[in-house]
């Protein structure tokens, strides 16, 4: 029962990660955030691989999934630092989320809860394919929504890392115990040889 509990818990964590990543991918697409879109795609693939490894008892896949979660925590920590403008990071100067290809910001900037968007007409500050807006009345600023989303991703990744290490250790111990009790890979399997009870008798003519 203990092994099943660990596997079931890991599958639940992976399912939550998958739902959270897909939800995040949708809003990043709406905001043209190309760097997070690429990272989310890789994360979705890693989570699916982790779920496959959990169901099929492949501890190597779980090790890969756990290693990816370490990178995922680092990426989300960078996003938190970026939106909080820690150090020299600046949202007004660095357009890292779009690979410096556009001036788009987070989708939540204009569509946050309670936000009122007003277009600034006859502004000379915007390029030809952009417009200047003012956003007011937001119950929660967009950068804090992005920080909260990344914090949830980090929390799920930490739980996933712990259970992935635990379940992969259980799978590896099961393989070792199978070899110890006489598995096919221990000393080489030798099928039993049939003994013949027939005896040759001389034939007299």
Q: Short summary of the structure?
A:
With 205 residues, the chain is mainly alpha-helical. Helix content is 58%, strand content 5%. Helix 1 packs antiparallel against helix 2 (34-55) and helix 2 packs antiparallel against helix 3 (59-83).
Overview of the molecule:
Helix 1 packs antiparallel against helix 2 (34-55). By secondary structure, this protein is mainly alpha-helical. The chain has helices at 2-30, 34-55, 59-83, 108-111, 142-180, and strands at 116-120, 132-136. Helix content is 58%, strand content 5%. A two-stranded antiparallel sheet has the order 1-2. It is built from 5 helices and 2 strands, in the order H-H-H-H-E-E-H.
Give a quick set of tags describing it.
two-stranded antiparallel sheet; about 200 residues; 2 strands; mainly alpha; 5 helices
């Amino acid at each position: 029962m203990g092994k099943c509990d660990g596997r079931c818990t890991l599958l639940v964590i992976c399912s939550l990660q998958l739902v959270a990543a897909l939800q995040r991918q949708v809003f990043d697409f709406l905001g043209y955030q190309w760097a997070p879109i690429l990272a989310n795609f890789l994360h979705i693939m890693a989570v699916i691989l982790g779920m496959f490894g959990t169901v099929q008892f492949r501890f190597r896949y779980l090790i890969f999934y756990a290693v990816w979660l370490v990178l995922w925590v680092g990426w989300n920590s960078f996003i938190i630092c970026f939106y909080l403008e820690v150090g020299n990071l600046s949202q007004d100067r660095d357009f890292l989320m779009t690979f410096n290809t556009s001036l788009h910001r987070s989708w939540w900037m204009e569509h946050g809860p309670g936000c009122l968007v007003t277009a600034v007409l006859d502004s000379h500050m915007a390029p030809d394919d952009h417009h200047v807006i003012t956003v007011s009345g937001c119950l929660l600023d967009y950068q804090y929504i992005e920080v909260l989303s990344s914090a949830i991703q980090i929390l799920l990744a930490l739980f996933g890392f712990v259970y992935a290490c635990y379940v992969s250790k259980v799978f590896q111990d099961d393989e070792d115990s199978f070899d110890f009790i006489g598995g096919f890979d221990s000393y080489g399997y030798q099928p039993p040889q049939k003994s013949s009870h027939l005896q040759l008798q001389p034939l007299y003519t």
